[in-house]
TrEMBL record:
Subcellular location: Membrane
Organism field: Periophthalmus magnuspinnatus
Major place of residence: membrane
Keywords carried by this UniProt record: Membrane, Transmembrane, Transmembrane helix
Pfam family, one: Tetraspanin
Gene Ontology cellular-component terms listed: membrane
Membrane topology: Multi-pass membrane protein
TM region(s), chain numbering: 6-39
Taxonomy, superkingdom: Eukaryota
Record's protein name: Uncharacterized protein
Amino acid sequence: LLIYIFLIYFIIFFYFFFYLYILLFFYYLFFYIFFLSFFSWRLDLKDGLALYNSENNIGLRNAWNIIQAEWKCCGVIAYTDWHEALKEKVVPDRCCQEHYQNCGRNSTNMFWNRVSFVLRFCFTASHILAATTKQTPYNDLISFRNNV
């Protein structure tokens, strides 16, 4: 009788920890993929900022202008992202709260500075960049897997 009780407890214990292990594995896997793709997209977006002034990327420039004007935001995380990308302390004119020509060159202007837009911006802009650079989250995962 004690052997049967021991076996029953062992089986319950084993299944409990087995299912807990499986649950934690998929939980970890989901968040690992989510954060990997989120940070990868953010880096891709920051790389896209550097292409803003290039002559061959008018579509990308227009996409940035539309997004920043409609969402009242500037850069990927903050307007200082443009300083890093453009290698000078300027931002596109669409970053200005009061829009006029060359307002982005005046450092005393008020620029849109929203942090809360990051998630929806990354989601939408990643699709824009995916369309312009043929880059997808699947390709990011494959390239990450090949580099490990």
